[in-house]
Specification:
The complex is a heterotrimer of chains A (354), B (496) and C (353). By secondary structure, chain A is mainly α. Chain A has helices spanning 2-14, 16-39, 47-72, 80-97, 102-125, 131-149, 159-166, 190-208, 210-220, 222-227, 232-258, 269-279, 291-311, 318-337, 339-347, and strands at residues 154-155, 168-170, 172-175, 178-181, 187-189, 260-261. Chain B has 2 domains: 2-231, Rossmann fold, CATH 3.40.50; 252-488, P-loop containing nucleotide triphosphate hydrolases (Rossmann fold), CATH 3.40.50.300. In chain B, the strands form 5 sheets. Chain B has a 6-stranded mixed sheet with strand order 6-9-10-3-11-12, with helices on both faces. Chain B has a 6-stranded mixed sheet with strand order 18-19-20-15-21-22, with helices on both faces. A 4-stranded antiparallel sheet of chain B has the order 2-1-4-5, with helices on one face. The relative contact order of chain B is 0.11. Classes of the chains: A mainly alpha (354), B alpha/beta (496), C mainly alpha (353). Chains A and C meet through helix 6, helix 12 and helix 14 of A and helix 7, helix 11, helix 13, helix 15 and helix 16 of C.
Chain lengths: 354, 496, 353
Amino acid sequence: MDKKKSSKLVNFVTNPKYLMVLATIGIFLVIYGAGILMYGDRGFSKLRTFMMLFVDNAYIGISAVGMTMVLITGGIDLSVAAVASLTGMFIAYGTTVLGLDPVLCMAFSILVGVLLGLGMGALVTYLKIPPFVATLTGMFLARGVCSLISRESISINNELIDKMAGWKMYFMKYSGGEWVKIKPVAYINLNVVIFIVMIIIGTIILQKTRFGRNVYAVGGNEQSARLMGLPVDKTKMMVYGFNGFCSALAGIAYALYVKSGWNLALQGGELDVISAAVIGGVLLSGGVGYMIGTFFGVLLKAVIPSLITFNGTLSSWWGKIITGALVLLFVALQQIVMHGKIFKKKSDPSHKKE
Amino acid sequence: MKGIEIQFPGVKALDGVDFSLRRGEVHALLGENGAGKSTLIKCLTGVNKMDAGKITLEGKEIRPTDPKNAMDLGISTVFQEINLCDNLSVAENIFIGRQPIRRGQIDWKEINRRSQELLERFKIHIDVTRPLSQYSTAIQQMVSIARAVDVDAKVLILDEPTSSLDNEEVKRLFDVMRDLKAQGMGIIFITHFLDQVFEMSDRLTVLRNGHLIGVYNANEITKLELVSSMIGKDLDEIFDLKRATQKPDAKMMLEADHIGVPGKVEDISFNQKQGELLGFAGLLGSGRTETAEMLFGVTKMQNGDLKVAGIPIKIGEPMDAINHKIAFCPEDRKRDGIIGDLTIRENIALALQARRGMMKPMSRKEQDELADKYIKMLSIATPDAEKKIKELSGGNQQKVILARWMATEPDLLILDEPTRCIDVGAKAEIHRLMLQMCEEGMSIIFISSELDEIIRCSNRIIVMRDGKKAGELSGENCTQADIMRIIAGEKDGETA
Amino acid sequence: MKKSKESIFKNKLAWAVVAELLILLVAGILEPNFFHIEYNATTGMFYGSLIDIVNRSAEITIIAMGMTMVIALGGTDISVGALVAVAGAFALKLLRWDVTMYPTPGDYTVKPFILVILVPLLICTAMGLFNGVLIGKFKLQPIIATLILMVAGRGIAQIATNGKQFTTGYTPFRFIGQGSLFGLPFPIIVTIVVCASVMIFVRKTAFGTFVESVGVNPNASRVTGLKSDKIIMIVYTLTGFLSGIAGLIYSSRISSCDSNNAGVNYEMDAILAVVLGGTSMTGGKFSLTGTIIGSLIIRTITTLVYYFGITSESIMAFKAVIILIVIVIQSEPVGKWLATRQARRQKVGELRG
């Protein structure tokens, strides 16, 4: 029995399906561990530091949930940050300038996000426009509309938004007969809850529903998926629609985080989201990726700037370079692990697919 | 299926073909490349739309709109190329699209258990939770068959299911097929292995060039008759062709000594003199094309030695072959031949330009002259040289590719099925050109599935079977029957 | 009939020219002074909106020259914007090597001055080569390969300048972006030289045909004897080099380096210029002249939109609408639909005739 269990474990670890995710988790643990060793005395080992990784990056994570799905189908979405920024603007302008109900503004933003996603999905699916170009158009559109609404940063002044943004769940400990907040204060806020819920929902969709499995099939081999009788077009549309939803949700989270709307907010944010997913082991050519990988990809990407801050002497810009290096590392790893076999087959001259 | 007709631009892919399948029958569908087998299958599965004709299943007329629809109607297909997603697990590939759902969730345990059981029937014991990409092509093939079998189908189509299986695996597949047959399933079986045809099938349908040649009972036709009906005489008109005369003092052009690529073609030895037209005969998949690709460096030659004009050479990629004055018109014109969006002029000049190198460009005038020369010489039907090549008909595209290589003035020209899917007139034109070039001292390797044209043009004929050289015949006094006998495997050895 | 078929591609170019002329016409109606070009005798320079458009479009035009071929190969290069920042950062880094010793912006410390030009160009070329190797040799998807430098590039730029914004008053450097030659702003001269060189290189050698061939059908190109990996590497390296030139012009224009904002969205603009110029995103035939016009269209719209008092950022919405129209027209299904419609119409015509 014991032997069977251990062989199962070996099987699990060597299964290339999980290898990339395990690599992400491994590298995260190594870097986090190294951080604790080096800066543990300055508080890196504290729960607060760890929780701040979530608080500061939840909006990236929420968007990465949708991005993961898009990438698994073999597509890409460059519009996520712009749509999030547009959402922030809707909320800020709607509540503060027009004095509308914030719930209405949020619902409207989500509707716009989903519609934009579906629109880009239609360009990709039915007009066969490369996802890169189609979503680039979406990005231009969202940013442009955002700037048409306002060029200035609008800070949000609304009771409900304040309440939502201010909601915190503190980590407590039981000492001296009563519950007290641990020191330094560690908490999670609404964004973190949304992030984790979205990761769970994403996992359930991808692993437990037929739709989710179709997403993988489309990314693995669209032609085969069609011949196996899977609804390829519908799947792609739904994925882009869902991603639009996630972008809008990320926008709401970002609005709660900074409590303002700005047309230039989140410039280049799409790259953060994409690289988080890639670092999380999602294959950019499609067909491979896990929500849990993306979850750790977000954390791994987040822990680097955090470490640089703790170091204090390094320029914060090393963060970008290290992120770039990590992307390179993971792409290389993917080529070796995932493609090792596929590649051999493809370079087989009888297939001659370059 | 009755009177199926499909039209593709330029070529009629299927012309009034009737086909019927009984319950509990294995029905083999035979024909060479481009005969229309695949097209027929694509109609049945709704990948292609029919221009005319109708399909009836159990007395009811059906119109499959796509593979999913065909599957729902009871037609399950294993396509020639493995159509699975190799990023998914083995089990999932079998069940995707129809996963068992329990409490609103996919029941993975059930999927894995049932897949394991299903594959046991094929005596395959593998970990079904691993990605498909980890397993050999043979296993992948079995998995795709397992998927098709597990669907509750009335008709099962197997398109070349055995091409990547070894004997043991083929036997297992046949056992399963017999099971299914006994259960009353009708099976359409496409293969180029004639032995398997006779082993498994009850009836045979032969197609050629989109036409129905005949329907036979398997026990009423000999292998030889079958080969002859598949290859047949296609040209009714007899053209006045004279084989190129061999000069006795001609130098040796090409000497191949046990060359091969493991797993594709092995142990090929032959030689060819200057001005000689060497025919390569054999069925689809016999290693004809693979030999040609190896000689040109499209596939890297791994064993054996090659000498061109007496000098040992190594060919690692096409450029090496071009530098040794070898030229190659590939079989798959669309994939490996034409550069669709470029003009006729650019397509003709490309190979010569590639050999000269980037920094020595041909002037526009030179290109124009080259293009005009060959358009005239090969009578390419086009208003001018600035038309995109993809707008030409198949035969004219072939002529442009021929022109591309003639422009490099090669010593050895390899033509792989140069007359496939082109009309009779263009065919005769290409024959005439080949012979003329041979007279001028060029050596030509000519690959074709039509024995008739091979016999009429070649000085010598090499017959291929199962990736090996099966025999060599002199072109002068050989008959189709001689070649067919070697192809059918009834007689081995040299009959020079 | 014969003529119309052969000039389908040239028609795309014609559309671009017509579009540009239409936009100019609108500009002329709205702002009669639009076409006014004035010669200032004291500075020896021409002034006017048209000159300004050409001048301001220099960076995008130069990058788009390389991007045209990248797209003709069926790829994309999204790292060009980051490379613009890198070039600027290293140029300023060399100019202000020792800020503590020479605190005023007028000084510079690296001699000879030519190094200030050459080193950034060399670095950008090397980065282009890096992209090219990943794509040509290791067969990475272009978008992933260039994503790496897009992310890391700005980081490298920031590190080079320690995250500071240097400014420079050094005249020879400022001349690149702000000087003038033959009465024209110097960036225009650079653009002309670059475009002419690239065009000569591409069209007077067989390189252009090779690029198109690999872009249309890599398999057939290989069988025909082309070395596609080398061609891919040359194109990406060239694009890196051209981004470097654009980076120098940009940083000279603002007399400083701004690693955060230099070249932001340049990749988008360059791609847009290429697509507007009639080169299809799916690869194949390309037109460098078209790209130049495409780049001018973008700049003209920008300039025009300013007249409406619309902010520069909202121009993106207009760009989006334009791209949308272009890509929908270019897309395969729409093309097929148009073709069948045309064929049907021809048939009807034949029947009637």
